[in-house]
Amino acid sequence: MARLFSEREIRAVAVFLPLAGLLVAALVLVRPKADPEAARRAEAAMEERRDSVELHPFDPNTADFEELLGLGLSKYEAVSLLKFRAAGKVFRIPEDVALCYGIGDSLYRRLAPWIRIGRRYAIAPRTYRPGRILPEPLAPSPFRIDTVSARYLRAIGALSKRQAEAFVRWRDLSGIRDMEELRACYVVSDSVAAALEPYVIFPERQPRPIDRPVELNTADSAALRSVTGIGEKTVMRIIRYRERLGGFRSAEQLAEIPGVTESNYEKILKQISCDSCRIRKIDINFADPKTLGRHPYIAPRTLRKLLKVRQLKGGWSTAEELIEDDILTREEAARLAPYLEFGSPGGTTDE
Asked: Does the pLDDT value for residue 46 go beyond 70?
């Protein structure tokens, strides 16, 4: 049988392997060891801020490294902002600074009053064409969203020609009556919507007659959407919150839902009613943890205490006992009591 390797090849491998082992060992020995203290000093130097900070109006699109340090940014934060710009990002509105990696919320809140976005960068830039000098965008002024032209939206630099034309088609087809519907248009980004919000005038939606209010606990999405002040997203929030609650005991609970702002809250109240007899109650002595934890008025900490005491005590007869057992505060009990029933082991319930 033929041999796979000659004696010469075997001798070469026998010499090579020890040499390779010695080389690897030498590399391991001569490699510099990590210096935790040096790394800590380098990190501290990046986080160090200047002692003298002078806040003044600045444009984050043009501020240089030294100016950023003078505004109170650390070296790390200043470098992060400059890298953000180097990647082709542009700050269109002051809120864009908060999106920059490395700029924390507290720093942004301190800088926000001093941020000034130049006309060249605000809202949306004009497309550059070689050899052509483009006019500066017009300063926006209040306009009606139901009659504004595509030409005007282009003139203030809000949208490109195609975007403005698509926006007008969308508006004429669907109608736009509030900021929620404006943001729903696919050509309007969040930053553009935020920049336009101070100038947009919406048409008044015809309110529902007072004698035919919408009943909160039985209304479907179409009925809720017909209420002036309630947008599509808010409709879904109301329905989801109603399901978690077990129904509304009073119309004022709408104020607990994101999207129902102070500006439209009073309008909504005049167009709705609430039948508290339709709320769904929870038997606190027998309901499973998942059902109890889903209710928005039962916090996780309260749920843990409630389950622990229920296991030892067996249950309660009134909401007052929950206060005495230090499970609910008096305010929490008053808010939650309409949603509770107290079943006894025999199967009867006491309201």
From this structure: no
CA distance linking residue 174 with residue 43, whole number of Å? 54
Q: What CATH number should be reported for the domain whose range is 52-114?
A: 1.10.150.320
| Spatial contact of 278 and 247, defined as CB atoms under 8 Å apart | yes
Q: What is the pTM of this model?
A: 0.46
In terms of Cβ atoms closer than 10 Å to its own Cβ (0-12, 13-18, 19+), residue 84 is buried
Candidates 339, 208, 333, 335; CA nearest to 273 is 208
Q: Work out the percent of the chain whose per-residue pLDDT is above 70.
A: 84
pLDDT, tens digit, for every residue of 120-175? 777 654 444 554 444 567 788 899 988 899 899 888 888 888 888 888 888 887 77
Given the DSSP bridges, would you call strands 340-343 and 349-350 parallel, antiparallel or unpaired? antiparallel
Task: Round to whole Å and give the CA distance between 320 and 323.
Answer: 5
Q: Does CATH number 3.40.640.10 belong to domain 214-278? A: no
Distance CA 336, CA 327 (A): 12
Task: Give me the residue label for tokens 């039985």.
Answer: 218
| Number of CB atoms found within 10 A of residue 316's CB | 20
∠ CA 304-308-313, nearest 5°, is 145
Amino acid identity, residue 131? G
Considering only residues 27 and 114, tell me which one the structure prediction assigns the higher pLDDT: 114
